[in-house]
Amino acid sequence: MEEKKTTSISPAKFTEKKYVITLIFVTSLFMCWGIALTMGDVLNKHFQNVLNVSKSQSGLVQFSIFGAYALMGVPAGLFIKKMGYKNGVLLGLTLYAMGAFLFVPAANAGSFAVFRIALFVLACGMATLETVAHPFMAALGDQRTSDQRINFAQSFNAVGAMVGPTLGTHFLLSATHEAGNELVSVKQLYIYIGVVITAIAIAFALVKVPPVTDPHDGAGEVSAVKDDHKTLFQHKHFVWAVVAQFFNVAAQAGTWAFFINYGHEVMHFSDEKAGYFMLPFMGMMLAGRFVGTALMRYIAPNKLLAAFALGNMLMCVLVAQGWGWTSYIALLMINFFFSIMYPTIFSLGLKDLGPKTQQASSFIVMGMFGGAIFPFLMGRIADTNIATAYYLPVVCYAVIFLFGYKLYKLR
């Protein structure tokens, strides 16, 4: 009687020992751009107060930041493809630090336009880091655990998102600042940031990065070989990921940009108190990332994404009612449900793209241009009624629901 042959598939590891140091550094990048991104939301309110710009005009802060993502995504991807992950990280950190130091002449000039130039340069660095960090993190282990690694790293992005508004509120919105010194505090804060980012760049330059093979290359896998003849844009799951990311970041940027305004106008908090509420707001995102990462061991990432999108559609409707604490708690909960969306859309969009993965990452980062447009649109409504403006993100979360429910599928 012939003996049956059995094959056992070993469980996929989170990462390998040789990648641990590199993984720590790459994870720190997620925190770095989380700090800068949420600092922009504090700058919205600060520039309204100090430079006398309207809510819709202050939305141009987000236009400068996310506009850089749209312009820098593809060049950053081409640079990374030619020069490698490590050099891509160093380029991103260099641009980030340069943008931070440009806040010095911007503060000296007291010009909203010059501040936006500084933000644009800084955001070019952020865009480069995002373009490299996601495929880099995916490459630090088995593809089967790439969703877990990216969501884990994005949890530290949430830590940065808590640190950013706390620092910004302390330096920029605190009532203890003397009149006339508000722009001096902006200058000091960004000098500190520039110094820290420069130190990280020097440290990472000294780290020896082990050779990595992008797990999304799918070498030897039937699906990857079969689809080898396709152009990037013939992969429909990737195209829909770009669309979903556009609407996802649009909703995020609009929600975050006017969070402090909502606390001030609906809850009647001082600017400083409303700013400090960004700490629990971003804490909800951190909690959502850890909960979401754990749930993905039992629930398919696309199904969880669709469920969280439905949750946020409901939260936005509640926020738009302006019902005091009920609406404000719903506003805090938006970040819980938002938590897994960016990394999960990113990871689903990169599946089985083989050597096209890095280029695909660039286009998904470009999809963040939604964040450049939406705050201005929300700001136009918020100039009249801040609560009503929160109806707009419902459309965005409907698109994300469709992506998670159906459009993510590999074809």
Could you write a compact summary of the structure shown?
The chain crosses the membrane at residues 20-40, 60-80, 87-107, 113-136, 156-177, 189-207, 238-262, 274-292, 304-323, 329-350, 362-382, 388-408. This protein is mainly alpha-helical.
Would you give an account of this structure?
InterPro entries: Lfuc_symporter_FucP, MFS, MFS_dom, MFS_trans_sf, MFS_TsgA-like. It holds the Pfam family MFS_1. The chain is globular. It has a single domain (about 15-405), classed as Growth Hormone, Chain: A (Up-down Bundle), CATH 1.20.1250. It is mainly α and about 400 residues long. The longest helix has about 30 residues, at about 20-50. It contains 19 helices and no strands. Helix 1 runs parallel beside helix 7 and helix 10 runs parallel beside helix 18 (about 370-380).
Largest sheet features: none
Q: Residue ranges: pLDDT <50 for 5 or more in a row?
A: 1-7, 218-225
Number of strands: 0
**Rg value:** 21 Å
CATH architecture grouping: Up-down Bundle
Q: Number of helix segments?
A: 19
* Share of helix, binned: over 70%
Return the structural class.
Answer: mainly alpha
CATH-assigned homologous superfamily:
MFS general substrate transporter like domains
Compressed to H and E, one letter per element, the order equals HHHHHHHHHHHHHHHHHHH
**Amino- and carboxy-terminal Cα gap:** 42 Å
Bin the strand percentage. under 5%
CATH class call:
Mainly Alpha
Tell me the number of structural domains: 1
Q: What is the molecular shape?
A: globular
> Which whole number gives the mean pLDDT?
86
CATH topology: Growth Hormone, Chain: A
GO molecular function, one term: fucose:proton symporter activity
Protein name: L-fucose:H+ symporter permease
GO cellular component, one term: plasma membrane
Transmembrane segments: 20-40, 60-80, 87-107, 113-136, 156-177, 189-207, 238-262, 274-292, 304-323, 329-350, 362-382, 388-408
